[in-house]
Amino acid sequence: MTVTEHRTAAVAEIRSVIGDWAEALRRKDAARVLANGTQDCVVFSLAPPLKASDADAGGLDAWFSTWKGQLGFILEDLDIAVSGDVAFATALTHLSGEKQDGEKAALWYRLTLGLRRTDGGWKIAHQHESVPFYMDGSFKAAIDLDPRSEVDWQAPSRPPMPGVIAYLNLEDADAAASFYGRAFGAKEEDRKYAQDGSRLIHCHLTINGGALMLNDPFPEFGHPWKPPEGFVLHLVVDDADVWWKRAVAAGAEVTMPLEIAFWGDYYGQLRDPFGVTWGIVAPVTGGD
């Protein structure tokens, strides 16, 4: 058998080992997971500590017990390199499932496996998992990344936006964005969908020169929908009557008539179909 044939055979065997290891994780079978690793397997996992060993079935079973049912465990872009009795495999990995408390989790992370050829065949000797973190000073783990995203992460950052920006969690963010276009002349700048292809994880609108952000509820990630209350979005405009009539014609409900307020501005409030209260305000002119 030639060197190339030996390498091809080794890659096929390693791919089978990794496939069986992944299936064992999906089924939460600790003994089967460990059977694919060496006794001294070193693990750099996403969870603390910095360094651990996978040679203890008890630790794996304890982690498995925090999940309901089987796990979702998908490897994408699996690449295997072999040299003699050592091999390295890299992949993008998607882990998903439902925790015992009902919380649903789903994230992509990076996986590197180091393997050794032993008397019992190829075994996983090292496992390294990682996620990038945001370099904005927050050091927040970037668990919202998706390998299918078309975002250019090397592109220059956008300039900072001035002022305070409202971010609304609405029952139907797509419908809200459409309504705000009709009612307030909103211009859509950007939108991103979740993996289900229907819910918006982000929608950026510009209204009256300012930014407004929207997203759908994601109760599985701790962001359920709640009725909006305790705030008003103010639009300070040059012609309150024009803005008012357009919003009412689009379907906004009048909750405070447009009139000269006690502080001297022309002011009124509307409630949109999504429960958000808007204030329309303009300076009083000679014609008011």
TrEMBL record:
<feature type="domain" description="VOC">
    <location>
        <begin position="161"/>
        <end position="283"/>
    </location>
</feature>
<keyword id="KW-0223">Dioxygenase</keyword>
<dbReference type="Pfam" id="PF00903">
    <property type="entry name" value="Glyoxalase"/>
</dbReference>
<dbReference type="InterPro" id="IPR037523">
    <property type="entry name" value="VOC_core"/>
</dbReference>
<dbReference type="InterPro" id="IPR032710">
    <property type="entry name" value="NTF2-like_dom_sf"/>
</dbReference>
<dbReference type="InterPro" id="IPR004360">
    <property type="entry name" value="Glyas_Fos-R_dOase_dom"/>
</dbReference>
<protein>
    <submittedName>
        <fullName>DUF4440 domain-containing protein</fullName>
    </submittedName>
</protein>
<dbReference type="GO" id="GO:0051213">
    <property type="term" value="F:dioxygenase activity"/>
</dbReference>
<dbReference type="Pfam" id="PF13474">
    <property type="entry name" value="SnoaL_3"/>
</dbReference>
<dbReference type="InterPro" id="IPR029068">
    <property type="entry name" value="Glyas_Bleomycin-R_OHBP_Dase"/>
</dbReference>
<keyword id="KW-0560">Oxidoreductase</keyword>
<dbReference type="InterPro" id="IPR037401">
    <property type="entry name" value="SnoaL-like"/>
</dbReference>
